[in-house]
Design brief:
Strand content: 15-25%
CATH topology: Rossmann fold
Number of helices: 7
Keywords: ATP-binding, Cytoplasm, Hydrolase, Kinase, Nucleotide-binding, Nucleus, Ribosome biogenesis, rRNA processing, Transferase
GO molecular function, one term: ATP hydrolysis activity
CATH superfamily: P-loop containing nucleotide triphosphate hydrolases
Shape: globular
Enzyme class: transferase
Strand order of the largest sheet: 2-5-1-6-7
CATH class: Alpha Beta
Largest sheet: 5 strands, parallel
Number of strands: 7
Structural class: alpha/beta
Main location: cytoplasm
Radius of gyration: 17 Å
Order of helices and strands: EHEHEEHEEHHHEH
Subunit structure: Interacts with small ribosomal subunit protein uS11. Not a structural component of 43S pre-ribosomes, but transiently interacts with them by binding to uS11.
Helix content: 40-55%
């Protein structure tokens, strides 16, 4: 039984190892969605709103304060949904918030090239590559959410990007139909 009030729009998490295409997918989905969805790049939100415990020089990333992140997002979720949450740490979000978790995956060789092109330090590239090979993000999603709301999609090229976004749009359309009150026909 769901504890929160029904939402009029879904909350979708797009997650995956850094470099798998989360932000690109989220931006395209926000543009193509049949209903207005707000894309929130959680990593950017953490920087902008200072929702962190400082910067880790070794890993070249902010140390997220998950409690502050949740507190910042709670009013948006409570206001009816309509969010695309783009972050590599999908298990930070309360299960009751989430309607769909999209885990993007990419061939580790291609991922290495993408991260290298971003100028990531070698240690960070290696760590993220190992995480992708070991399905770390997928396992975190499976531990945090019901299996029936998790979808795994390959994110290798523009063709897969278009196909993935089309599948998510179809899911949104189906979700919306399931939210309509029964007309008693």
């Amino acid at each position: 039984m769901q504890e929160n009030a029904p939402r009029s729009l879904p909350v979708i998490v797009i997650t995956g190892t850094p470099g798998t295409g989360k932000t690109t997918h989220a931006q395209l989905l926000a543009a193509q969605s049949p209903v207005p969805l707000q894309h929130i790049n959680v990593s950017e939100l953490i920087k902008e709103k200072m929702l962190h415990d400082g910067f880790d020089e070794e890993w070249q990333s902010y140390i997220a304060d998950e409690d502050k992140v949740i507190d910042e997002l709670e009013p948006l979720v409570s206001a009816g949904g309509g969010l695309i949450l783009d972050w590599h740490m999908c298990d930070a979000f309360p299960e009751r918030w989430i309607d769909l978790v999209v885990v993007l995956q990419c061939n580790h060789t291609r991922l290495w090239d993408r991260l290298e092109a971003r100028g990531y330090p070698l240690k960070k590239i290696q760590e993220n590559n190992e995480a992708e090979i070991m399905n770390v993000v997928l396992e975190e999603a499976r531990e945090a959410y019901a299996e029936d709301i998790i979808v795994t999609l390959n994110s290798e090229d523009a063709t897969e990007l278009e196909s993935n976004v089309s599948r998510i749009v179809q899911w949104i359309e189906e979700w919306l139909k399931n939210q309509e009150p029964d007309s008693g026909s």
